[in-house]
């Protein structure tokens, strides 16, 4: 140590001022980094294509944050060391006559160091809080997107199932309509054909439906119809037109 040499004191003050200037610049940049980190997350939440979105990705900002934190901590440690040397110098017996002025200067440098330390920890804590919050929100948004994607797939499957079900119902309806149409046509054809057929009726049967034999097979005719033809002069075994 240079003892009471004033040059030593001035050298310490010069080192302190230089470190304080570096810290001031670093802290300004550090604060801007934290602000841009928050803005980038807000921009991505609002619109990923927004022109206000920073060029730096969050991973790059995270690396810069870690690097700048280490640099600022190193500068604070150096400034603390310089302040300790200044305090040690003020305790030297040879400078007691100047002790009041030296202590005033030392206290000013200590206050600056305390302010920079407080600002650094405050900015760092804010950055960490923002990053933790955004990581949590990002995880929640990811879960929501995953749920929406899964719901979209399920909705698509449900829609396809309903369409297929409706298609099958339409097919069944078409088949039923076709069968009904064919049955109606068949009935019309049979009615026209039966009007030309002759049957031989056996009215001696006592059932309510008389059993008749014709060229298209056997038929059961109502007794009333058979009796009418009998009253018109037809006899058992004689042919008469079928009016079924």
Automatic annotation (TrEMBL):
Subcellular location as annotated: Golgi apparatus membrane
InterPro entries: Golgi_SNAP_su1
Coiled-coil features, chain-numbered ranges: none
Membrane topology designation: Single-pass type IV membrane protein
One term of GO molecular function: SNAP receptor activity
Chain segments carrying region Disordered: 36-62
Source taxon at top rank: Eukaryota
Keyword Transmembrane: yes
Gene Ontology biological process: endoplasmic reticulum to Golgi vesicle-mediated transport; inter-Golgi cisterna vesicle-mediated transport; protein transport; vesicle fusion
Keyword Ribosomal protein: no
Keywords: Golgi apparatus, Membrane, Protein transport, Transmembrane, Transmembrane helix, Transport
GO cellular component terms listed in the entry, alphabetical order: cis-Golgi network; Golgi medial cisterna; Golgi membrane; SNARE complex
Functional summary from the UniProt entry: Involved in transport from the ER to the Golgi apparatus as well as in intra-Golgi transport. It belongs to a super-family of proteins called t-SNAREs or soluble NSF (N-ethylmaleimide-sensitive factor) attachment protein receptor. May play a protective role against hydrogen peroxide induced cytotoxicity under glutathione depleted conditions in neuronal cells by regulating the intracellular ROS levels via inhibition of p38 MAPK (MAPK11, MAPK12, MAPK13 and MAPK14). Participates in docking and fusion stage of ER to cis-Golgi transport.
Stated family: Belongs to the GOSR1 family.
PANTHER family in alphabetical order: GOLGI SNAP RECEPTOR COMPLEX MEMBER 1, GOS-28 SNARE- RELATED
Name of the protein: Golgi SNAP receptor complex member 1
Taxonomic lineage of the native organism: Eukaryota, Metazoa, Chordata, Craniata, Vertebrata
């Amino acid at each position: 140590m240079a003892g009471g040499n004033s040059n030593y004191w001035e050298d310490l003050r010069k080192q302190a001022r230089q470190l304080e200037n570096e810290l001031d610049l670093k802290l300004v940049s550090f604060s801007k980094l934290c602000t841009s980190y928050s803005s980038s997350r807000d921009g991505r939440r609002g619109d990923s294509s927004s022109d206000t979105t920073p060029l730096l990705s969050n991973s790059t900002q995270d690396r810069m944050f870690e690097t700048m934190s280490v640099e600022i901590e190193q500068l604070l440690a150096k400034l603390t060391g310089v302040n300790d040397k200044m305090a040690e110098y003020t305790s030297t017996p040879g400078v007691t006559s100047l002790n009041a002025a030296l202590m005033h200067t030392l206290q000013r440098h200590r206050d600056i160091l305390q302010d920079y330390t407080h600002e650094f920890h405050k900015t760092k804590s804010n950055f960490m809080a923002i990053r933790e919050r955004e990581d949590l929100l990002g995880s929640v948004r990811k879960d929501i997107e995953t749920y929406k994607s899964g719901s979209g797939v399920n909705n698509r499957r449900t829609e396809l199932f309903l369409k297929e079900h409706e298609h099958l119902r339409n097919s069944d309806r078409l088949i039923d309509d076709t069968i009904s149409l064919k049955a109606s046509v068949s009935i019309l054809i049979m009615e026209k054909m039966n009007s030309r057929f002759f049957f031989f009726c056996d009215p001696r049967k006592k059932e309510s439906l008389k059993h008749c034999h014709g060229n298209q097979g056997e038929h059961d005719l109502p007794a009333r119809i058979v009796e009418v033809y009998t009253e018109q002069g037809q006899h058992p075994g004689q042919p008469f037109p079928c009016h079924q």
